[in-house]
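My current task is to audit a protein record that another person submitted. I need someone to confirm that the token line plausibly describes how this chain folds. Take the sequence as given and treat only the tokens as open to question. This is what I was given:
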Amino acid sequence: MFSFDNTANAFEYKNDKQLKKANFLFSSMGYTWLVGIGTKITPWAIRAGLPVKGLIRKTIFEQFIGGETLEETATVVNNLARFNVQVILDYGVEGGDYGEDEKDRSCEQFLKVVEYAATQPNIPFISIKVTGIARFELLEKMDDLMHKSEGTLIKRYEQTLEKISAEERQEWQRICNRMERICSLAATKKVSVTVDAEETYIQDPIDALITLMMDQYNKTEPIIYNTAQLYRHDRLQFIHDCHQAAEQRGFIFGIKLVRGAYMERERRRAAERGYPSPIQPDKESTDRDFDRATEFCIEHIDRVACIVASHNEQSNALGAELLHKKGIVHNHKHVHFSQLYGMSDHITFNLAKDGYSVSKYLPFGPMKDVVPYLMRRAEENSSMNGQMGRELKLIKTEMKRRGI
């Protein structure tokens, strides 16, 4: 069993002062009442222009974000490179209710990120969200129509394009054009693009669009990656279907494996609207499908490129051990591991130390735009029995080892 216990490896990139600061931050997150107040007040304080940016920047922002600009991320990226840890760079602005001009500006920003990543040998991937360049309501309408159609993913997509209005088709074409520009530049610059998963009720048209991009740009190497949320009970079959399409069409299927991000929202919507929940019945089912997906991807490594994006020790150990047992080089270009920046350093840096291809998912962006991301990190780290408890225990172990 691959071991992640070596805290000397895990925190080698942090000096004593940085380690103490991380200890203070994660300890503070253990006070759920404090996190509750902070997650409500912070977004309001930022919008109101109150002088809190300095405090946020020196604490939670510094722990989880690469910087406010592309240039600011260089310090973090270069430090990670010293320990053979790469970066998936994410412009941390999330989709919102805004117009076509703003979506065009988001596209331009994604293009700038691709251009920048191409100049940095330690940034092989960038991450984008389709809701940054597309209207949510159009995605939702197309998804509903696709569910009412029959056939393969692409056939249902083609049928749906005939059912929407001429104006909506023009809007969708603009979305396709934005995605085409991003993927085309990425292919030219040899930078891979991972496309984040979204809610189930807008995911089908996104899946179709990404599949078409893979068919165009993944002929010889994995440039475009979709994301599968394995807390969905249909995603393992989706991965099998995509592999079959890749075999038939002659492209490399790129997939980032995650457990998922919208569980409570999905269950609540399903209950309110009276349709079966798309979410697995329990955590064990999610864990089972995640591990089966990892095994499937590595079994079909010639046609599938996967990113094991997980904070679960067992899932990362499984991927590492499969490569080792099969005699596949640890840094094979079709298998990559990734964790969020500021979390699970014991997984990331121990994998890197053993020669595996591994990265930190590194968001950046203006303070006001990355606050929603920061609030989610604070909330998920607030349980002493969960992620924060593990992080704090490991930090304290390393502080004891260093005698600080």
Remarks:
- The chain has a mean pLDDT of 92.
- The domain at 68-309 is CATH 3.20.20.220 (TIM Barrel).
